[in-house]
Structures are given as C-alpha cells and as structure tokens.
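hey team, just a heads up i'm posting the complex here instead of the shared drive bc the drive is being weird again. everything in one block, sequence lines first with there labels, then the predicted structure for the whole assembly after. its two chains so it's a bit long, scroll down
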Amino acid sequence: MRLALPGIGGMSHEARYLSWAVLAALVAITAALFLVDADVERTLDHEEERAARRELLLLHDLSAEKGGGAVLETITRRARVGDSELIFALKGEDGHFYGGVSEWPQVQRDDGDWGPLVVTRDSERKRAVGLMSLLPDGSIVLIGNDFSGRDRVRAASFAGFGLALVLISALAFGFGAQINRVGMRRVAAISRTAEEVMAGRLAARVPVDRERDVFDHLGLVVNQMLDRIEALFAAMRAVTDSLAHDLRTPLNRLKAALERAALASNGEAAAEIERAQNEADRLASTFSSLIDIARAESGLSEEAMEIVDLKALTEGLVDLFSPAAEDRGLRLAVSTPEISLRAHRPLLSQAIANLIDNAIKYAPSGGLISVALSRTEEGAEIVVADNGPGIPTGSRAAAQTRLVRLHPAEQGGGAGLGLSIAAATARLHRGELTLDDNQPGLRATLSLRTAGLKS
Amino acid sequence: MARRILVIEDDDSTRDYVVKGLREAGFVVDSSAQGNEGLYMATTGPFDAIVLDRSLPGLDGLSVLKALRAAGDQTPVIILSAIAQVDERVKGLRAGGDDYLSKPFSLAELHARIDNLSARKSGRAVETKLVCGDLTMDLLSRRVERAGRGIDLLPREFQLLEHLMRNAGRVVTRTMLLEHVWDYRFDPHTSLIDTHISRLRKKIDEGFETPLLHTVRGVGYRLGVVA
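-- predicted structure starts here --
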C-alpha cells in the first residue's frame, strides 16, 4: 500500500513542505540583497568622499599658488573630461559659476562637509552627494557625484541577486523534491514492513543502507524491535509445541492401552473401558482447545491464514448441524452473501460451530436459530441468534470476562471453553465476540476485521 | 500379497503398539525410531504407505518427507503429530504429506486411513456408476437406486453416500467423513456425523432385508453387503 498522508487545504504535504522551503529561500535572499545594498552604498559614499577630498586638496593648493584663473581652467577641464556622474563646478566671487552644473545648488555651503545635495545638470534636477569649499582665491568649489553611478551598481547587483534568487529557488525546489521523495520512499518502506508483519510475516525487515542517515537509524531500531518480537514468538512456539508434545504422547499411550484392553475384555469391564476411552478423548479435545486458544491469542496461528470462502464455510456448518437441530425440534435458518476474506479456516470453523452448538443446547424446542453472515466495512460479521433463555443482563459482563480470561467452564460442559475459542478466534481476526440480548435469547456476534490485509 | 508399511516413530511405546496392531491387521511392517535411518529404509521400499512422526531425533519428520518427495518417491505418507494440529496440519500437507493424524489417535483410525490411502494410490478409473450390492449410484444423472427402487437424497446425503460407496468394504471414520464430505478439519461432536448417517441409513436401508450401512463400534462406519 502506498503511504498516503492526508493533505490539508487541498495541498499535499510534499507541496506544502516545498512551498515553505522556497518561501524561506526567497526571504533569505531578499534580506541579503538589502544588507549588501546598504553596505555597497556606504562603501561607495566613503570612496567618493575620499576622491573628492583629494581633488579639493589639489584645487586648494592650486588656488593658493596660482590663483583663481588656474582653478577655473582645471575645473572646466575636469568638468569636460570627467565621468558623467562626477560633478565639478566653481562659483567665482562675482557670483558666476562654471563647470558641470547648469544652476548653482540652492543650499549655500562652503564648510567642506560631505553631504546630500540637489544639483541641476543639463536642466535636470538630480540628487547627489558632494562638498562645497571656499578656496583661498575666494571662489567656492563644488565636488560631488550624482547617483547615476550608484544606480548602475545597484541595478547590477539587483540583476545578480535576481538571477541568484531564480537559481536558488530552482535548486531548493529540486533538492526539496528529491529529499522529500527519498524520505517518503524510506517511510513507505518502513510502513510496508510493518504491514507485512501485521499480515503474519514476522521475518520481514526494513531495508537499511550503510549510509546511516536518520531513516537508517529508524530502520535499525524497528528491525531490533522485530528481532525481539520474533524471538518471543519462537519462545512461545517452543513452549506450546513442547507442552503439546509432552502431554499428547502419554495421552496416546493411554489411548493405546485402553484400546488393547478393550479388545481383551467383555461385559462390565468393556463398558468401563469405553467410558475411560471417552474421557481420554474429552481430555485430548479439551487440551487441543487450550493449545489452539493459546496459539490464537498469541497470534502464532496467523501463519496459517488463507483466503476463505465464508459463505461456503457458514452454509456447510449449518448443513452439518441441521439434523442435530431438527432432532431437538429446532429450526436453523441461514443467510449469507458472497464473502471471501483472509481467515484461519480451522479455527473459524470451530468458532462458528461452537456458537451454533451453544445455541442448539439452549434454545427451547420449537425455537428458531438464525445464522447470518454479513459484510462490514472492515471485513465480516457472523451473528448466531437464538430465542432461548440467554444470559441474564447482570451476569453477561461476568460471562464475557470469564471468556476472555480463558477459564474453562466450571458448569461441567464445554460451553465456556467453546465460547473462549470463539472469542480468541475473533481476536486473532482483529475482531471481537459480543453477547447481546436477543429479547428473548442470546445473540452472539463474531466480528472479523481482516478485509484490508493481504494474503 | 500382504501390504508393506513403514513406521517411523521415536516414542517406543507408540511405535511398538502401532507395529503390533498393524501386523495383527495383516500388514507387513518395518519400523525405525530415527529420521535418517527411516529415510534410508524408505528408499529400500516399495512400501504401500509410510507412517511418519512429525518430531524425530536426527532428521525431523517434515525433512524426511521433503527429502523423500524431492527424490521422486510418491509413497503415501501419513504424518503423526503431537503438535497443535490446526496450524501444523497445513505445513505437513504442504510438505507433501497425504494425510495428517494428530496424537492421541486410535489404531482403528490409523488403520482406516492407511486403507483409504493405499486404495487411493492404486488409482481408480473415472467411474460414472458406483455399485454396492443392490445399491447403485449414477454419478452423471445423480440417481440412486436400491433394488430398482429410486431413492431421493439431499445434495449432502448424496456426497456422503458417494464417499461411503467409493470406500465400500473399508472402514471410514467420523473425522474422515468430516474432512472429505464437509471439508472441515476441527473437532466437532462426533454425534453430528451420527445424525447424518442415521438419516442416510433410513433412506437406503429401511424396508430392505439386508442392511448395507454398518456401524463399526468405536471407530466409524462401513458400507458393504456383509456385516
């Protein structure tokens, strides 16, 4: 079975994880872009200021040594050959200005401080940074940079980051999808193993690579757990098998001895021997039932499960019991649809037979016993109902407990053990045996929940 | 010619009893208490049937059976087992066993099953008509007659009589009937089979001078002209 995690809001878990991964990458890259941008801006500003101050120093010396004319010449030349973002301008004592501005900035400064300005170049107002300083010849020089250089750098870095963003998103998506796929596959492998074990194949193990990632670690732990369970099962099997062997072999000798004695006797002795033989058979049969219950309760019997035609099985049992029921003046009615599912055939036959046998024992003459098989969501349900005295409401809970606790019936008959087998069989099939009031009579429901299991 | 049986069983008391009982019943019996030796003896055959215990010292019963089948030996094998029958039976039959008997068993039951198996082994032609005395069963038209008088049988009664007629003259036990006619392998009250038999007996024997369906006390039933 494929591992299917239910999605939320129409989105699968895989898609949700991927969306979050991509969104996280996006936020990280955008934050990085702004941090880098601020840093670049600060560095550029610093570099520009240093360059401007070098120029100012030169112009200052020039002004002191050669006067305003030489300064003006230099400014004009620099304004002409300089980079377009460089601003060189000069304002003479007479108020005229020369160089790279078409209008003198409105802010009047001559303190040499580096700071923001608005300049008009080619009749276009531009934001810029720069300094204005009074030269020894009395003119004011303006050295600065408009923002076009910075804009170029910013555009370049945004383009770079944009490309990086696309690449990283694609990679994140790709890696995310891959990691997700690998993860899902590994989890699915573990879940498949669990299903196999549930289906009775205790030797199933999670495949583990030597890479020792988190899934390998999980797989190793699960496998260790399965080793332990398998060892417990082996121990359980050894105990029941040796117990069975140790008790059945002497029982067989007892039966053999009685059979020999029967051949050599007659009259009263023969009758006594026959009674002893019947008791030996009863003992063997009770013992078999106990072993069957123990095996069913421990899940050991799962190995022998197969696909069983429940309709044929139920109808066959009703057919088998019909003459016995008729002899007691009872009617046995059966209704079954076609159902086949994974079940333990011998135990299930025995369990249903026990329920029918019980009903025949307690239903009053002229009564009706109905055996109904029906499909349920998880498997099937067999209801055996009679109109006998039933079990009083007060002691029904006690009856249930006694069944579950596997206490052989004190009241001399096989009924208690018979119902215990039915209850153990129900549990082996992941279901339960419930006893209800049929008003009047007893209604025993044996549920099986093995529909989803593979054979 | 007397039929030859090989008994491989490690419990001395059970083996002695089975060997003695089968000899008294007219079989020629060889025996072994050990898996390896048993397997070797099996190859010295031919035997009409092998009675094989499930748990043996040395080579265990199922391994003996698998080795035998792998070597192409198709001698009928009855597995005896003291281990939980409901699960182990499946394993035994899967390993190539022909029948499975769980301990404690009675010698009569074993005897009946050996008869049944060796009869099966000798093979039968595809029959369309079964006859026992003046009782006839037409398997195609599904008509049953006794002394020319038609007998109406329910489907299950027909199957029951068919099994008895195919084994006419041989003892068939209650558990064998339950296995072959109803296909159940559990331990019901044997009286259930008795009620079916008594109904069948009413239909085929009532009103006729010689009964055909006999009860073999403590064992089962036999269909035949002589009691």
